[in-house]
Amino acid sequence: MLPEIEPQKIIAFVEAHRAYAPLVIFLLALGETIVVVSVFIPSTFLLFAIGGLMAAAGVPLIPSLIAGGLGASLGFSLMYILSAALEGRLLTYWPFRNFQDTIAKAAAFSRRWGIWGVAIGHFGGPIRVLIPIVSGISRMPPAPFMLANFVGAFGWICVFFAPGHLLVSSTWFQQAYAGVKAMF
Description:
Elements lengths: L6 H10 L4 H12 L2 H6 L2 H14 L4 H26 L13 H14 L1 H7 L9 H7 L4 H19 L1 H8 L1 H6 L1 H6 L1
Helix pairs in contact: 2-4, 2-5, 4-10, 5-8, 5-9, 6-7, 7-9
């Protein structure tokens, strides 16, 4: 039997530790863009909920958005640098050698969209982590890659984190759910 979750205690915990909020978002975004780690951190889906939770606890939006964008762009950058350094050898290592068809799809996507594919790749679900890898292996120039990476990373965090925060911090939401909050 699961213990009963008390929303007010969770909000109070987040409020008491609000200084760590940007770090949490940074680490979630970073983990979402690192190959093996992203399998265990479904942060894209969690970001909306965490955004709302942070808004309920009074955590400001902008520092977490900046931290999330930096985390996502750092993860893409690390994967790009690693794949550029190892070139095609990276594809012979686990887990890459087991997913050749998925890598081929990511490579086709990257060839079709070029630099824009890096920015769009942040929104690419399962192939997200492969976009910087195929970009590095194909020797995409670093400056355009990094520019597209920053644009995509900050766009991604704005799309998946900010709406939850903005919704819960809105006057409409607070008025509509004032009675629900009082029940807790």
